[in-house]
Amino acid sequence: MVLRKLRTKMFFFLWFMAGVFIVFIFVEWGMSSTSTRKLSPQERGMVGMVNKSSIPYHNYSNLIEYYRKQGVPLWKCRDLAFNTLVEEALLNEILNKRKIVLSDEEVVELIQNNPPPALLEDTLLQTGGNFDINKYHEIIANPANIKWLESYESAIRDQVPRQLLYQIITSATRPTTSDLVEAYMVENTQLEIEYAVIDSTQFNITEPMLLEYYNTHKNEFIATESPIINYVVFNASIRAEDETYIEDGAKEVLGLAKNGAPLESLAIEYGYPIKETITPTDLLTGPIKKEDGYHIIKGNIDLCIPIRPSDETIARTEEEATSFIESAKEGFSEAAKSYKLQIHKIVVENPVGNPAAGGASSGASSGTKNKIPVDLSYIDLKTKGKLIGPIEGQNCFYVIYTLGVEKAYTPDFYEIKDEVYNTYWKYKANEMAQLLIPQVSGTNFNEILAANNIVVKTKTLSQQDSLEDRQLFLKSLNIPQDKIAKVETNGIYLIHCLKRDEPAKEEIEKSIPQFGAKWMKEEARIIYTEWIQGLKEKATIKDYRYKIY
After folding, report:
1. What pTM was estimated for this model as a whole?
2. What percent of the chain has pLDDT above 70?
3. Longest C-alpha distance within the chain, in Å?
């Protein structure tokens, strides 16, 4: 009886203690949740967001390492990796929306009938010099190869839907014969021209002239609403010990090359750039010091070990920039003065969310005319009073302080005097060109222009020229032989077409089939690139790579 009462009391006592414990746990959790601060994106292992998808740090880090091994400079690797992962996230979103996935049966069929390219070249899988599909089937049926098979399956599930999406997006690339003929003509035509450039030296431009033009064309100089920022630069200067270290590294690479290591393999292993030499040599030579680095040459391969700050110097510079940020929290200008840094003020032309932004620059505004060559596309620069950084550039770090948004307005003449000057002389050059064109002909081109103190030059133009000349070629392409026209690129040109060297009809008919395949491939690439760009412009993309205070 007593034992029964004790057991009964113990039963209620245990439930009471359990209740107290549960209450204690909830109270403790509640106190912890209210006292614990919210983790930043970086602390949660995120470098960015694309709509509702996060970009994990480990993916970003792995991709940076991949690009480094391709010889891409580290400061470029970061933006390249981030933008690649942004595109990947957008593609995954589209694939899910369109339900472009492979069934298990489709994956099995692809594995069975599409060996990886590396295996196609494997002599162990060949019979009589040809790839033997039966030997391949033995490999995929072997349980010992299950890990490799799982990896191949994963690659197929990842890549094939992307290839299908690419085909869907670019399926509109269906040129007519006339389209291909026109494209072939552009690629294979040469123009011999004589030309004159009408530039600002032709005019005696005074300030009253500029003021008059500005007052009658104010609507052309309206500054759009844009974020304004201040920034400072911490340069990682190359120290004497850095160059010694680089030279020692070059000698080490040379030693490996002397022992038989191919330069291409060493370039991949160490992340050094290579290029083809103009004058190939059978002898292994180097290291030869040039302006851009130490060069090791063999055959037609030139491997360059760049002269740049060491990782230690870069780390010290980043540490200094981080220390500056702590001081700048109390005042950006005061900190800059203390660190003896120049403050640069610019207006960001491409606001957050526009992937076309390759950095920031000033326009018609109170900002100075300089640029910060880093990608600020996905950072919110409109909120006033934010410190952002350190942001790595080429052998330097930037720290940004946001000043808010400059509303759309018409700037004062003296704020944009240089811009008014450039606009005005081009206006005058166009005016002069329109007056001269009726006066000149193929026989008096030189004479008339010389009378107006304009120098005439000759040039051969084609689609294969440098960017500037290619633009001039495309603008001049429709000028008939022995005719004259005005062309505007980065300057105002008067063009006299002396000769058009065009492909014959027989050549076009013979070349069109092969050319058409190449043209369609390039056109598909352009269409796909523009489609990706459109996705970026519509997406909500956030960049968490840099700390914002």
Report:
1. 0.69
2. 89
3. 132
